[in-house]
Amino acid sequence: MNHGTIRLYSYWRSSAAYxxxxxxxxxGLAYEITPVHLLRDGGEQxxxxxxxxxxxxxxxxxxxxxxxxxQSMAIIEYLDETFPAPPLMPATARDRQRVRLxxxxxxxxxxxxxxxxxxxYLERNLGVDQAGREEWIRHWIRSxxxxxxxxxxxxPSTGTFCDGEQPTMADCCLVPQVFNAERFGxxxxxxxxxxxxxxxxxxxxxxxxxxxxxxxxAQAQ
Amino acid sequence: MNHGTIRLYSYWRSSAAYxxxxxxxxxGLAYEITPVHLLRDGGEQxxxxxxxxxxxxxxxxxxxxxxxxxQSMAIIEYLDETFPAPPLMPATARDRQRVRLxxxxxxxxxxxxxxxxxxxYLERNLGVDQAGREEWIRHWIRSxxxxxxxxxxxxPSTGTFCDGEQPTMADCCLVPQVFNAERFGxxxxxxxxxxxxxxxxxxxxxxxxxxxxxxxxAQAQ
Lengths: 221, 221
Fold this sequence. Notes:
9 helices, GST_Zeta (chains A, B), maleylacetoacetate isomerase activity (chains A, B), Glutathione_S-Trfase (chains A, B), Glutathione-S-Trfase_C_sf (chains A, B), 4-stranded mixed β-sheet, Glutathione S-transferase Yfyf (Class Pi), Chain A, domain 2
């Protein structure tokens, strides 16, 4: 596809960057990755070169030609409006509400509460030890996944994917969140619908290529 | 305007409910409010009658006819798609990205980190005292407003409002966040652009009618 150059500022294990990588792959868009190491040397996201791109000092940032785009859901909707096929949003206002709902249940109410900067504040300002921080992470992930499972299960709009038979922005958010849940040892047994959807996503090449361990900046564990 | 019955489950001081009240008022839609008292009796949002509407146990919930809508930004976009005039989103993909960006800088990265349920976890599980919790709130608000001020200031797309000359979803999110900032004593002096925009909003009847102290469930301080 002919389009302006696309560059993603990404960190392999960033959940928000992972969402955008999935969306770019689903759109079939070629892009280059500039890794931003969130931990090395105090965090490259805090260096002036990156702050000039994003005063929030968070990944991802997407450059599309000379446009600087930020916030993963806003980036995905932009990609969907700019490169309509295949769609990442459903056709009706009712269904779009539902896709945004699931995406926001993750991108507002799970992920930012347990993000790196919050964990660093818990550690440095409140003296919360690693066990306490990991329990914090699991608490918010479980609380969010409980509600998402209830939203998706036994709902006629739920299909192979979060909404119907094609991946949408909701799946772009769900898969990275479940990756994080497993990373931190959340018991996924209660989430049958979520597990089924994530399995359906994770056999698709667009989702596989976006996985953290496939990224150029991935590190041995 | 002729439309299905609209009912908002709201709490007067909830920042997310406040966003939706502004959007409904800007659309000129009549709606009834069902108050959900977030503190009384262990929190009415945790009672089964409300959990049946929202397994996340958060306000707001909007009923539109028989549709149950959740997540404030997803609700506002639904309202904008369903009742197009006046628009709460700009006309181009580039500008919509920018409005969603500002909205998400607030609704993802400030508000959920300092929401009631997080403060309750800090208090009950981690023993953080009131002074520590209020410093937590101010820290995340300041960090977010710093980045928003930089995003809005000296940007040609910024107008009387966050994006151009009409209120958008970004303003629906910004005004409640600044209300919260002032409530918790954040020094607003560094945020000249934000203050100017919020002042422009807060003289409009649609924003005035949405204010917490104007709500049926508002309490004397």
